[in-house]
Amino acid sequence: MPLRINGFSGMDIDSMVKQLMTAKRVPLDKLNQQKTYLSWQRDSYREMNSKVFAFKTKLSATDLFGKTSNMTAQTAVVSGNTDALKADASANASTVPMSVTIKSLASKTNVQSGEVVIKPASDSTPSTKASLTTTIGELNGYKPTSDPAPTDDKPETFQIKVNDENFSFSTKDTISNVLSKINNSNANVLASFDEVSGRISITAKEFGSNKTVTISESKYESNIDPNSGDSTKPSTLLGLLNMTNAKVNEGKDGEVEISTLDPSGKVIGSNLFATKDNTLKVNGITLTLMKVTGDNPSTVTTTVDTTKAIDTIKSFIKDYNDLINTMNSKVDEEKYRDYTPLTDEQKSAMKENDITAWEAKAKSGLLKNDDILKDTINSMRLIINNNMGQLSSMGITTGQYYEGGKLTLDEAKLTEALKSNPQQLSDIFQGTNGIVNKLSTTMTSTLQKFSDRAGTNRFSGDLNSTFKEESVMGKRMKDYTSQITAMLKRLDDAEDRYYKQFTAMETAMSKLQSQSSSLFGNSSQ
């Protein structure tokens, strides 16, 4: 930046340059305003993305509206040994009571090490239990086996295999590192360390007798016990982790005896069932096994209870209405075209309250008549309208035409409908062609459209998530940034040029003034 001096001619050069630059900055101000407006639009899309994502999550098969047991009036009741069993009735659950005797639970194959200890400092120092931060090189029994001896830069490495997955560790790896690498692999096991007992456990992720855990040494074929004091054989990782002779607890399948009962409680039929994961579906009821019943079996009966189904549909209607009302408000929101984003100079001349009021109007109508929102609204309303015959018979109807597709509920009518047919709500809303699945498909499509246009995260409703640059609006933002950068460079050059021109003029005027003074001085003599 050249030195800028005012004063020889008495002109206010800074003010003159500022006035000249003000006119030149008008295109830059417009670019900044356009970029700001685009940024506001992206934020508005992200807000809508968050609401759509939240609604879609509740539509999933495992959540509020997608879970079958939440929309059926059939309720499974467990009596007798209530601690041993959990039961959930589906829409087509049988009304025949069952006696459930859990003979054994399914288990996972588990391999457990002996106590893992740190190498003592001397023969007179007792061994201490290892911790998660203990390195392999610090474990009892480790001695260098490579030639030349390992260094920090080139530590000794060990290889093991867990369920056909190969792993390589060095003496600098901690026990925590070992567990993390195994858990983040495709070995299909969970490795953990108990700092109380000092033992490592490696457990199959899945239940059952066919899920094994095999661990073998890849680098050395040695069964040396690191605590044996034998210095003639090389250390092995399994030896250092005290897993050479680790105990293997084989996984087993669970076994359940289920008997159906007549109204008097007499057994009318029995059967044995095997389970690999401690769950079982019998007569439309999902049983979750929690403990062996012994001589105290559990009894499962079904009853009609409309409470959960009605609460679920009330929640659905509320969330549906909230979403469609929000979309309608965004599409219909007034747009004030005369209120553009304020420049920094404009803000500096305004009060804070005035700035807030101005920007409220400037941000109004950011998504007015937005095609994505309009398509989503139309799809949501079409899905409901296509099922309106069945819905209205259950007390679920749409409001007035001017309410934009809002749903209303006659709770008494729904209660009576569910009592006469406990599964009809689930039949309408759930399943492949149900309302929930179709709405979920619509929400997925909307999230993808938001992502393509604004760069929002279709897998998250986080309002602070970053935007994808490779989206329509992301590319426009980058283009604005490039244009603004280039224009700033041109404006800086122009400003420097103006100052140079005025400086040259100042210099010329100074010389002229000096010459005039000299001439007038000579003539007066």
Helix content: 25-40%
Extract low-pLDDT stretches: 1-5, 220-232
Number of strands: 19
Q: Roughly how many Å apart are the termini?
A: 46 Å
**Order of strands across the biggest sheet?**
1-17-3-13-14
Please state roughly what percent of the residues sit in beta strands, choosing from under 5%, 5-15%, 15-25%, 25-35%, 35-45% or over 45%: 15-25%
User: Structural class, judged by helices and strands?
Assistant: alpha+beta
How can the largest sheet be summarized?
Answer: 5 strands, antiparallel
Average pLDDT taken over every residue: 87
* C-alpha-based Rg, rounded: 38 Å
The coarse overall form would be: flat
Query: Helical stretch count?
Result: 13
Total domains: 4
Tell me what you see in this structure.
The protein is α+β, with helices and mostly antiparallel strands and 525 residues long. It has four domains: 1-66 and 452-506; 74-106 and 253-304; 110-249, no CATH class; 309-451, no CATH class. The protein is 40% helix and 18% strand. It has 13 helices and 19 strands. It has helices spanning 13-24, 26-58, 175-183, 237-240, 307-332, 344-348, 352-362, 371-385, 388-393, 411-420, 424-429, 435-454, 472-523, and strands spanning 74-80, 85-89, 98-104, 110-112, 117-118, 128-129, 157-162, 165-170, 189-194, 199-204, 215-217, 247-249, 254-261, 267-275, 279-282, 285-289, 298-304, 396-398, 407-409. Strands 1-17-3-13-14 form a five-stranded antiparallel β-sheet, with no helix packed on it. A four-stranded antiparallel β-sheet has the order 9-10-4-12. Strands 2-16-15 form a three-stranded antiparallel β-sheet, with no helix packed on it. Helix 2 (26-58) runs antiparallel to helix 13 (472-523). The longest helix has 52 residues, at 472-523. The two termini are 46 Å apart.
